[in-house]
Design brief:
CATH topology: Aspartate Aminotransferase, domain 1
Helix content: 25-40%
Order of helices and strands: HEEEEHEEH
Strand order of the largest sheet: 1-2-3-4-6-5
Number of helices: 3
Number of domains: 1
Largest sheet: 6 strands, antiparallel
Strand content: 25-35%
Length: 113
């Protein structure tokens, strides 16, 4: 399944004013990187892949709409999958994008970024 292009457009609108944001195909979806660090992506499985502070991830997980993400076959701390119904409203999507962009911005820039 290809990523949701409408969702990608909604994310693009939210990050348009951010410095250092680049779009890149990743994990079969479309990721938005901040200074070379993945922040949020329109997932190929639908919904979002979001990178958050690992220390803040557990309380966000409800195992229905928000779950730990498995990348390359194993669960990764600070990576969450957020189901489409959890980002139907603009406000809900904006909150997840804010979390992802904020965390990515807190990381050291990747070399050459």
């Amino acid at each position: 399944m290809a990523y949701d292009r409408e969702l990608a457009d909604r994310i693009r609108e939210l990050v348009a004013a951010e410095r250092g944001v680049v779009e890149q195909a990743m994990f079969g979806g479309l990721a938005f990187l901040v200074n070379g660090n993945m922040s949020v992506a329109a997932s190929r499985r639908g919904g979002l892949l979001v990178r958050v502070d690992p220390d803040e991830a557990r309380p966000l997980i409800d195992d229905e709409l928000v779950a730990p993400a498995a990348l390359a076959g194993r669960e990764r701390d600070g990576w969450l999958t957020v189901a489409g119904p959890a980002v139907e409203t603009d406000e809900a999507l904006a909150e997840w994008v804010r979390r992802g962009v904020g965390y990515a911005r807190s990381l050291p820039a990747k070399k050459g970024r």
